[in-house]
Amino acid sequence: MVTRKLHHAKNIKTDNDSANGRSKKFPCPNCPSAFGQKPSLTRHLKYECGQEPRFQCPYCHHRSKKTSDVYGHVRRKHTDLKVFAIDIHKVVHVLSRENETLSVPELSEQLLEESPSEETLDQCL
Predict the structure, then answer these.
(1) What is the rounded end-to-end Cα distance, in angstroms, of the chain?
(2) Is 108 exposed, middle or buried (0-12, 13-18, 19+ CB in 10 A)?
(3) Which CA distances in Å does 71 have to 51, 63, 67?
(4) In sequence order, which ranges of 1-125 are alpha helices (DSSP H)?
């Protein structure tokens, strides 16, 4: 028997999904997601659909499209450390204004230079 793990299957919304029994009227043209309100579709298109994760854990390489996911990660994996997320887009923008050019992997490494010990990073595994 072959089983397949669907990545983030719980987050895939369809036209028939809804919390109150009504169908979703605003489907995403690029993916299977659908929304009950137009502003939700607009937010999805602008910040999530087809975008790379923009928020990173300050203590390891975990990244997500939502700050709340990074906050939860920090609370679970880095229990005694301050809870916050790094907005990669803002850091890249500041570096570009200072005429520094770094790729995202280089930026991640630079942000993690003052990271906690390997023991703390192992908590993420």
Answers:
(1) 28
(2) middle
(3) 19, 11, 6
(4) 38-47, 67-77, 88-97, 104-111, 118-122
Q: Which tens digits make up the pLDDT trace of 6-34?
A: 444 445 544 444 455 667 899 999 999 99
**Which structure tokens are listed for 51?**
């975008």
C-beta separation of 71 from 85 below 8 A: yes
The C-alpha atoms of residue 23 and residue 108 are separated, in whole angstroms, by 41
Q: Is 89 helix (H, G, I), strand (E, B) or coil?
A: helix
Tokens 């975008």, residue located: 51
CB 29 within 8 A of CB 46: no
